[in-house]
From TrEMBL, chain A:
Record-level Gene Ontology MF annotations: FAD binding; oxidoreductase activity
Keyword Ion transport listed: no
Keywords: Oxidoreductase
Family matches, as InterPro entries: CO_DH_flav_C, CO_DH_flav_C_dom_sf, Diverse_Substr_Oxidored, FAD-bd_PCMH, FAD-bd_PCMH-like_sf, FAD-bd_PCMH_sub1, FAD-bd_PCMH_sub2, Mopterin_DH_FAD-bd
Domain called FAD-binding PCMH-type: residue spans: 1-222
Protein name: Xanthine dehydrogenase family protein subunit M
Organism lineage string: Bacteria, Bacillati, Actinomycetota, Actinomycetes, Kitasatosporales
Cited SUPFAM superfamilies: CO dehydrogenase flavoprotein C-terminal domain-like, FAD-binding/transporter-associated domain-like
Protein species of origin: Streptomyces piniterrae
Automatic annotation (TrEMBL), chain B:
Keywords: Molybdenum, Oxidoreductase
Pfam family, one: MoCoBD_1
Organism: Streptomyces piniterrae
Designated name of the protein: Xanthine dehydrogenase family protein molybdopterin-binding subunit
Biased composition regions of type Low complexity, renumbered to the chain: 718-733
Stretches the record annotates as Disordered: 143-162, 705-742
InterPro entries assigned to the protein according to its UniProt record, in alphabetical order: Ald_Oxase/Xan_DH_a/b, Ald_Oxase/Xan_DH_a/b_sf, Ald_Oxase/xanthine_DH-like, AldOxase/xan_DH_MoCoBD1, AldOxase/xan_DH_MoCoBD2, AldOxase/xan_DH_Mopterin-bd_sf
Taxonomic lineage of the native organism: Bacteria, Bacillati, Actinomycetota, Actinomycetes, Kitasatosporales
A single GO molecular function term of this UniProt record: oxidoreductase activity
Domain Aldehyde oxidase/xanthine dehydrogenase a/b hammerhead residue range list: 28-139
Amino acid sequence: MKEFGYRRVSDVSGAVALLGAEPDARFLGGGTNLVDLMKAGVERPGLLIDVRELPLDRIEATDDGGLRIGATVTNSDLAADPEVRRRYPALAQAVLAGASGQLRNMATVGGNLLQRTRCGYFTDLTKPCNKRVPGSGCPAIKGEHRNHAILGASEHCAAVHPSDMGVALAAFDAVVSYETAHGPGELPLTEFYLPVGDTPHLETALPPGALITGITLPPAPVAALSRYRKVRERASYAFAIGSLAAALDVQDGVIREVRLAFGAVASRPWRAREAERVLAGGPASAEAFAAAADAELAAARVLPHNGFKVTLMRNLVVATLTELTEEAAR
Amino acid sequence: MTTATGTTAPTGAVGAAHTRVEGLAKVTGAARYAGDIPYTELAHGWLVLSTIARGRIGSVESAPVLAMPGVLAVLHHGNAPRVDGDYTGPLGPPDPILQVFQHDRVPFAGWPVALVVAETPEQAREAAEALVVHYDEEPHDVAFHAGNPRSYTPEGPQAETSKGDLDAELAASAVAVDAEYTTPEEHHNPMEPHAAMARWDSGRLEVVDTNQGSKFVADELAKLFSLDPASVRVRSEHVGGAFGAKGTRPHQVLAVMAATALHRPVRVVMTRRQMFSLIGYRSPTAQRVRLGADADGRLRALDHAADCRTSTVYEFIERSADYGRSMYDADAHHTVNRVVPLDVPTPTWMRAPGEAPGSFALESALDELAEKCGIDPIALRARNEPDAGPVSGLPFSSRNLLACFEEGARRFGWADRDPRPGLRREGRWLVGTGTASATFPVLVAPSTAAVTAEADGTFTVRITAADVGTGARTALTQIAADALEVAPERIRMKIADSDFGPAMIAGGSMGTRSWGWAVTAAACELREQLALGGAIPPQGITVRSDTTKDLATLTAKERYSFGAQFAEVAVDVTSGEVRVRRMLGVFAAGRIINPLTARSQLIGGMIWGLSMALHEEAVRDEASGGLVGADLAGYHIAANADVPLIEADWVDDPDADDPVGIKGIGEIGIVGAAAAIANAVWHATGVRHRDLPIRPDRVLLAGTTAGAEPAYGEVETPGVEGASGVEGAPGAEGASGGDRDA
């Protein structure tokens, strides 16, 4: 494995300046994905800039009733935060559905957003991959793709984003804050990840050299009644084959507001706006839930072995919204 | 809780729970494994594996790599010393993968093409990953499927057995089952990776290794390198799991090659990914089972044809069809194992080779027959209990299958079971139960042992046994204690050193029986000598045993262990999730030496069966010929959360022909477990799953037409059929799915 340097930084501007001076450098959060990729040879940084001691480890209420989550908050601390659990329960559930206790103790919120796909071709240097080596081809399209994308993919890449946390964040309109040498900036999470197109190696809209500093969750009363449902091939310690973050505000059988985001179906957490549009103001019934899922999934393009995800996501939408409706009535 | 079995020996060590004698060393980290031990001047070898699946090595660009920091050598087919693979060992001729770097041919993806040796493992790895190898690639074929025209029936009497007129009996049967079952490529990756250090010391080759039989490996290395067997010493004190994967593999050969070339100690450790192509694995299988029975379930016809796959360089047969040869009789009885050579690594023995996939097929088919006959699955098995070996006609040494079912059914609550499928719902879960038989051969092989009475009143036992994590060292201590009629604390058990002489490997569930026989023979003779009185000299009194002659007197019988597996599962057909809720295995597997470690070993096998049923599957990429996700993130085994209440127990079943009563418990725990789970999934949902693993996508789409068109090139948007079950209908969907016989 390639030899690399290691530097610990204590202030944001110093971190950004150091990265700018070392084009071969990467920020190191918990390292739960980056270090694995270094072992596999997928990432070969010359310098790791450890950002875990930056003063970005707080979860604070915002004046308007939202939450601001620092980039170095660990997954464990995020899931355990009382305000997160009270205001955005699906977010806490999503974080706890991922990885293991040990990994969650290390993994950071900022790093979670930047983790790479677990596509088996991406992590294997002996095989082509457009995301790893642009233009080399995507063997998944004709090969192993049971857990690949049904939405928003292209013939150049059908890998899925692995994050559970990001799915809940997408449902709750999270905004990503970052710092660059030229000053701070913001991106809504739904615009944070770039479309796949013919550039699957370009994954985020972060400017070059940017350091994620935190995530802001705007106030969302609807999120108080929310749920994250994750389906995977074993009971624990596996990435989703389909997941759903759902929040529902229903009164007298009428949907006042609904939030839906899908996981493990696209190269990014997939906000299901079409399904939300179909449901808004309508009845909270299984038929309506199914129709909304169908509307969202009408855009699905499946490969020979991942078509089950269409059925799975439809079933998850109906089952989860039905549960939330019943819960709202109690 | 312990269950003492058999007669109680004078000291009562055998049959009593005993923690591992090396347990303290292991949990404190004092126990050193082969990859851990420091040596002066140790150099580190790193393997380079082929990235093509078939072809020739054009060139190995060593020069740039040799200039990298710390690099000492690059071994490859152009400069490696010659080895001699023209021999036949106890398990047959060697897999040609041991003849490392002897030619330029590449027969599969992941074939060893070079070894980079450097001062540190990091330097070796960086250089190995930088090494450029040019290939002349040829087209490859890795696709395994039933009915491949290149499949053939291997030579030898064990490939096929036949009696009676199959077609006539099938035609005369009131009830018939004809179904195909598949199991995928499965891997046995021990937690501890393969690792070997080799060095020359005073004219002797010393290898510190992790293996299943140090004498076996030493003899094989002696043959490969044309050495006097007495000049090779292999030790393997602690082994972090083996499961059939830790015989002689390329890393030991390469460590010896490099140590010889560099005149210094060299260690070669495999990475997890390398293990997926270098250590063997279980072939995928495609099995067709045909059963014909009278209306009361009595079998008239049993036909089991099992296809497997091997490499193009070595014929290894996964003998799935062997399973029925001892289990069930029929007027017409036919079993055959077939194989097709493809451009893939050679498979090998993986826990319960043959029996694990074979039992999935035949025990699932029996459940289907029970359903069609309308009789209880246990009653069906009882109705078909043979009096003698169905194929051999030989008597059974003992056959306590029904005792296992009786005890298991009582504890599991089987009598209360409603046989109808798809009826029990708890929230989103459909619940069902299933059962299956288990069996595994009882074998024994010659071994030698030495037992020494020391002057201080202690005893030292030396035997080239291997404790691969099973507790063999502890069991042998207990056996020696009873034979010597002393407390176990007075025994010093030395194992896993080829200098101790020939002994059976830890394999075939034969280790403890084979070694225990030799230890008992030497210890009993020593005890008789000591009983005559007299002082013990400073060097002690040593008695040696060799069981070769004793074993030759064993008469031909059907010698098997048996078991009954039970499982309860919950299935959500709207998400495809299957969760095992509880398992129970009751076994008749000879006298149990150490209930503590035996239970652990049996439960371990059952958990493996759970993984086989629901999780394990290596995915081979047809384009590259290699695996996708060849690591323990990509290759799933059960996580703790998948493993519910699992109980294993046993009925009294001492083997009358064994001096200690042992049969062997290493493998039977996995046998039948996957079938019991698959049968329970049917009971829960009404849908038969004949392809393992029973993945969520398979459950979700079962009973629906899953065929969706490829999106790219020929863009289509699928309908969302198959989702009708969301609102209360999943049970009905499952029940109406019924059979999906091809």
